[in-house]
Amino acid sequence: MEDTHAATAASGTPEARVESAERPVTKVLKVVAAVDASEESLQALSWALDNIVRCHPDAALVVVHAQHAADHFVYPVAAHGIGGITYAAPSAVESMRKAQEENSRRIVARALEICKERQVGATAAIVEGDAKEAICQAVERMQAGLLVLGSRGLGRIKRAFLGSVSDYLSHHACCPVLVVKPTKAQAK
């Protein structure tokens, strides 16, 4: 005869019954799309919308833009006997900061407009610092499942001198990185 309140083990102590509903655990894919003022980054965003987000309608999309810190823009001051001193007037730094913030807002607004045209909801974040490191840190902080970014298609020599954000992130980001290269038609 079965006890409806609790099963009793051979030792006489009640056993807990575990009933599971066997619900599959679904993890929402968080896609981070890094954008800047280049057409390549916006083409990468469009590619992600058409090929990733469309296939994963529950995916969370975050558009990230990195802007350089305004206090990095300084100019050298030369005086007799004094070398290596740099200075930026507070008003000049503030003007640069405001111009950068406005530029960043325009870039993010353009990216969000592309999302809206495709009827995809997205959030945006503007991070400050060197693009390579700032995006890498943002992706980790956001616990992204995928980072999507464009490539300018720099040659080997230019990439060695200028550095490549996509190359750096493909080696250092904490999640998979998808680099969308421009098509031959777009590269011309």
From TrEMBL:
Pfam families: Usp
Protein name: UspA domain-containing protein
UspA domain mapped to chain residues: 30-181
Region (Disordered): 1-20
Superkingdom of source: Eukaryota
InterPro entries assigned to the protein according to its UniProt record, in alphabetical order: Rossmann-like_a/b/a_fold, Universal_stress_UspA, UspA
